[in-house]
Amino acid sequence: MIIDNGYSRPNSPSSGFYQSTPSSSIGTPWYVWLILLLIGGTITYFIIRALFCGSKSNVAKDLENDTVTVTKLQVALLSQAREVQSRLTELSLEVDTDTSDGLLTLLQESVLALIRTPENWTHVCSSSQAVKRDQAEGVFQTLSLTERSKFSHESLVNVGGRVSQRQAPIASPDKDPSAYIVVTLLIGTEHDKPLFGDIKNTQELQQALEAIASIPESHLLVFELLWSPQADSDSLTYDELLTEYTDMIQI
User: Fold this and answer.
1) Among 11, 70, 161, 224, which one is most buried in terms of CB atoms within 10 A?
2) Backbone phi, then psi, for 144, in 5-degree steps?
3) In 3D, which of 245, 247, 194 has the Cα closest to residue 71?
């Protein structure tokens, strides 16, 4: 006879009650994990801070040193790229070049107009050199005068936000078929090394344009935009390109 009174001994294997016994391995106390988390957070903070401070120190180094960079990038395009002429004229009339923000906008939008038509790039001439700050203005002015002397006239000028326009002369009907447009970017920046090296192909030209487009406002000292011809109804002949722009190489 089995008599079941509904009660089982606590230590019985069949009991609905049991006693848990501590594991033979000792667990890591909670405060140890807290200390490890704090140490890890501190290390992460210092790594991030070092990265940001390093970036800022590089910018400060560029702005405080005695070296600046003078850059010239000249691109010849097929005359089919007339939208480039129209866009540059539009920008020169609308952008306030008397402010640093306006000057940067003109630079970036001019570069963007060139980047958008790589199929029309034909020739290039480039230089980017680091010079002493007290020599930079002379180097820049020499480049500017050299390029402007190639123009028979200047039909649109924007200097310090002041715009002046002149009627472009009518092309002679005996003129050879037009074929090219030349855009020149002259830039002075706070960089202490050249923005790019030699350009011999379209890929290197693309990289140079992207480097120019990424110039921060804090580094842009001066920018001069030149293009010939100015009117989108005109362009240069092949002979004019070879005669006036002798340093350009085909890409």
Assistant:
1) 70
2) -65, -50
3) 194
The one-letter amino acid code at 129 reads Q
Token pair of 8 as six digits:
């089982």
**What distance in Å separates the CA atoms of residue 216 and residue 59, rounded to the nearest whole number?**
10
Q: Does the bond joining 229 to the residue before it have cis omega, within 30 degrees of 0?
A: yes
CA angle (229 as vertex; 81, 205 as ends), nearest 5: 50
User: Rounded to the nearest 5°, which phi and psi values hold at 196?
Assistant: -160, 170
Q: How many CB atoms lie within 10 A of CB 235?
A: 24
- Left if phi > 0, otherwise alpha if psi is -120 to 50, otherwise beta: which for 6? left
Contact in structure between 191 and 130 (CB atoms under 8 Å): yes
Helix axis angle, 202-213 to 100-115, nearest 10°: 160
